[in-house]
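tool_call: predict_structure(chain=1)
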Amino acid sequence: MTATAPNYDRTVVACFNGYVTQAIINNFMPLLFVTFSATLGIDMARLSMLISVNFVTQLVVDVLAGKYVDRIGYRPCIIAAHVAAAAGLLTLGLLPTRVADPYPALLAAIVL
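tool_result:
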């Protein structure tokens, strides 16, 4: 009897999709900074804070994911990451123009 190696093709594709999603999320919002400033009236200091919050959120999630991924498995973590990314992008697209102060909506989108 020969043992067959597990097939991780779908996991690899999900990880590649995660890389692409993370690249979109990290590069899309800075492209909109001029729009945020002109349309939503957000000043440069608050735009800079968005970058800092994004960076700190990534660091915190990376540290926490390292602790919990072995306990709950890779699949739930990948699914949760994709759901959070989709929720963040939806929040970014829908919420800032519908609230009185768009800055907290942008912060929520970044954290998601």
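agent: The first helix runs from residue 9 to 31. Proceeding to next step.
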